[in-house]
Amino acid sequence: TEALLPVVVISYGFLICLISIAGLIHLDNVLPVLENGLAPVLKAAFPDIVSFPFGQTVIFFMIWHLFPDQQKLKKLSLIAYSTVALFLIAMNVLNITILGTTLVANATLPFLQTVQLIEVGDILERLDVMVTLLLFLGLFVKMTTFYWGAVYALTHLFPAIHKRYWLMLVGLLIFISSFLEPNYTTHVWLGLKFSVKIYPLFQVLIPIVMFIVMLVRRISVRQPP
Q: Is 3 helix (H, G, I), strand (E, B) or coil?
């Protein structure tokens, strides 16, 4: 991720500059703001946006405790979450200003459609390949992290079995399952219809329970015997 992050940042910055130069941004597409109040926003946020992309709390729990400087970790985590949140908001607003709400709501990959509209001096165009590469870079990091998390959890749950066997078994399972869905439409349908409804059970409930247990333990330790 340290090697890929500069590539991702520079690529997004380059594409956003070209979008501005091409004159594709129309701010009137985002008006009126909150036309129907906060109710539609909250309905869209829960549980879908809570699960994706901010729901990967469990995998972070597996990584955070390995970090030696916990005080520094808190600051870095807050900065990372805030930066990602602001970036996603900005990119969604950018897509809406260019495509409008109807196209953004029905597009599979709105930013890909946005970049396809770039034409600068009849030279810089058809840059959607950059978006595709950025998409695969992000998916690579995310899938590798989940792969590591699954192996890490199984190794601790079943210590009698060596890590290398879990590595092969989980990898084989991921490989086989990647062929079960016939197309991308089915993949998205399964994710939005079922997965995001189940994720909050362990991405929200488990962290809350852990937080309560931590508080109870701290209070019991501070109380005199």
A: coil
